[in-house]
Design goal:
The chain is built from 15 helices and 15 strands. The protein is of the alpha/beta class and about 450 residues long. Bound molecules: guanosine-5'-triphosphate and magnesium ion (MG).
Length: about 450
C-alpha cells in the first residue's frame, strides 16, 4: 500500500546540522490554513515575509514563506516553503507544530512521488531527480539533467506511440482480414525497430558516471604503488619506502582531475608467499577493492616483472572485477633501464611504460583516464539498473518482433510481441506501475524531496 496522498505532508528539505538557511516544505490541501496559523497572517501567492509562532504565541523565528498554488507547484498540489534559520532544534520544533496543526511527516521522496502521481513528471524524470541529488560526479550531471528535463522520456514516448499504432494495425488485421495491410505493418515495424536501437545505442549504464568512481592501484610489493598514489594526489599521503610490504592496509583519498572527482585507492602489495597474518588481511581488503573498482592500475616493476606472473594476476583481476572494468598495466621504473615512456594496447589492457619517481609518462596515464570520459557522446543517456533490465527485455522483444515478421508473418505472434514491448516501454515511464514498485523506487529518495 502506498501512503495516503490526501494528507498534507511536511518535511525539512535541507540537510541536518547548522546552516544559513533551513527549508521546511509542506504540500497538500491544508498548507494555506496551517501556514496562516503558524505565521498569524494571510499568505499570498509568491513570497511572504513572516514570523513563526508556536504554542501559546511563542515567537521562535522570522523568515520568508513562498506559496505555490496548485497546479503550478513541484508536487502539483498547494505547496509552501518556509525559508528560516538553519537551526535543527528550531526546525524540528516548527515541524512538530505543523503536525499538531494537521499535517503528517512526509515519507522519503513523497514530494516527488506526488509530482509523479499528479502527472507533473514521469517516472524517468522522477528517478533523475534522485540521480541528480546523489550524483558523485560533476561530469554526470549534464546527462542526468537532460533526462530530468524530459528529453529521454520524449524519445521513449515517441516509440510508445508508434507501438500503439502498430498494435492497432495488427489487431485490426486479425479481426478483419480484409483490413490486412502488410506494407503498413512492415513500415511501422522497421520504424520502431530503428528508433529503439537508435536509443539503445545511446544508453549507458555505467558506474563510471553514476557512482563514486574508484581507481584502485594494485601490484606486488615495492613496485611503486604508494609513490604513484602520492604523485597523483600531489601530497605525501601514503608511506613510501624500499622495504617490501610498507603499505599494509588500503588507503583512499579524493582525487580531482579536470571536471571529475574520483576515489583513488592505494593497496597492500601482493607477495607470492603470504605468511604474515596482517598481510593476509591486507590482501583480503585488496580483493574487496578490486570488486568495486572502475579503473585498475596494475603496477609492475619493469626490472623484476615476469610476463607469466603478470598474465596470471591480470587474469585473476579480470575474473573478480566488474565486467566493464578498465585495466591498465603500468610498467614502472623505466629510469632504471633507460627506456622511453610509451603506451601500447594489448587486448583489453593498456600498457604504459613510465617512471613514477622521475615523473615520466604520468601524462600518458592521465590522458588515457580522461579519454574514458570524453569518448562519451553528448547525446548519450545515463540509465540506472532498473532501466537497464527493462532495456534488455525490450531489445530481445524488438528482435523477436522483427524476426517474427521476416520469417513468416504470424499476426498472433506479432500481437504478442508488441504487447510486451508496450508493457515495458510503459514501465520505463511509470505508466500503470504497480504501487509497491513505486514505493520501492521512491523509498531510496531522501526525506523532503
Ligand atoms: N628507480 C625508481 N624507483 C621507484 C620508482 N617508483 C618508486 N620507486 C621506489 O620503489 C620503492 C618502493 O616504492 P613504494 O611506492 O613504497 O612501493 P609500493 O608498491 O607502495 O610498496 P609496498 O607498499 O611495500 O607494497 C621506493 O624506494 C620508491 O622510491 C621509479 O619510477 N623508479
Ligand atoms: Mg605502498
Amino acid at each position: 500500500m502506498l501512503y495516503d496522498i490526501a494528507d498534507t505532508i511536511v518535511a525539512i528539505s535541507t540537510p541536518r546540522g547548522s546552516g544559513a538557511i533551513g527549508i521546511i516544505r509542506l504540500s497538500g490541501d491544508k498548507v494555506l490554513l496551517i501556514s496562516s496559523m503558524l505565521s498569524k497572517k494571510k499568505i499570498k501567492i509568491g513570497i511572504n515575509y513572516c514570523s513563526i509562532f508556536i504554542k501559546n504565541d511563542i515567537h521562535i523565528d522570522d523568515g520568508i514563506c513562498i506559496f505555490f498554488k496548485k497546479p503550478r507547484s513541484y508536487t502539483g498540489e498547494d505547496l509552501i516553503e518556509f525559508h528560516l534559520h538553519g537551526n535543527d532544534l528550531n526546525l524540528d520544533t516548527i515541524v512538530n507544530e505543523i503536525i499538531r496543526l494537521g499535517a503528517r511527516f512526509a515519507e522519503c521522496g513523497e514530494f516527488t512521488l506526488r509530482s509523479f502521481l499528479n502527472n507533473k513528471i514521469d517516472l524517468l524524470q522522477a528517478e533523475s531527480v534522485n540521480a541528480l541529488i546523489n550524483s558523485k560526479n560533476f561530469y554526470t550531471n549534464k546527462f542526468i539533467l537532460k533526462s530530468l528535463r524530459g528529453y529521454f522520456s520524449e524519445e521513449i514516448k515517441n516509440i510508445l506511440n508508434d507501438s500503439f499504432s502498430l498494435q492497432k494495425n495488427i489487431e485490426a488485421s486479425i479481426e478483419f482480414l480484409e483490413n490486412l495491410d502488410l506494407k503498413k505493418i512492415e513500415i511501422l515495424i522497421i520504424k520502431i525497430y530503428k528508433k529503439f536501437f537508435d536509443i539503445y545505442n545511446k544508453i549507458i549504464i555505467n558506474d563510471i558516471l553514476y557512482d563514486d568512481f574508484k581507481i584502485v592501484i594494485l601490484g606486488n610489493v615495492n613496485v611503486g604503488k604508494s609513490s604513484l598514489f602520492n604523485l597523483l594526489l600531489s601530497k605525501n599521503r601514503s608511506i613510501v619506502s624500499d622495504i617490501p610490504g610498507t603499505t599494509r592496509d588500503y588507503i583512499d583519498s579524493e582525487f580531482f582531475f579536470k571536471d571529475f572527482k574520483f576515489t583513488l585507492i592505494d593497496t597492500a602489495g601482493f607477495n607470492n608467499n603470504v605468511n604474515d597474518k596482517i598481510e593476509r588481511i591486507g590482501i583480503k581488503n585488496t580483493i574487496k577493492q578490486i570488486r568495486n573498482a572502475s579503473i585498475i592500475l596494475y603496477v609492475t616493476d619493469i626490472t623484476k616483472e615476469s610476463s607469466e606472473n603478470n598474465f596470471r594476476i591480470l587474469k585473476l583481476i579480470k575474473k573478480i572485477s566488474k565486467s566493464n572494468i578498465k585495466l591498465f598495466n603500468l610498467k614502472n621504473k623505466i629510469d632504471l633501464i633507460n627506456i622511453e615512456k610509451c603506451i601500447t594496447e594489448k587486448k583489453d589492457i593498456t600498457e604504459i611504460y613510465l617512471s613514477v619517481k622521475n615523473k615520466i609518462g604520468i601524462d600518458l596515464l592521465l590522458d588515457e583516464i580522461y579519454k574514458i570520459f570524453s569518448e562519451i557522446k553528448e547525446d548519450a543517456y545515463i540509465i540506472n539498473k532498473r532501466h537497464y533490465d527493462i532495456f534488455n527485455k525490450l531489445k530481445a522483444n524488438f528482435e523477436l518482433l522483427k524476426n517474427n515478421y521476416s520469417d513468416n508473418i504470424n499476426l498472433d505472434l506479432l500481437a504478442e510481441d508488441i504487447k510486451y514491448i508496450i508493457s515495458d516501454l510503459s514501465k520505463l515511464l511509470g505508466i500503470n506501475t504497480n504501487r509497491d514498485i513505486l514505493k520501492d523506487i521512491f523509498s531510496s529518495f531522501c526525506i523532503g524531496k
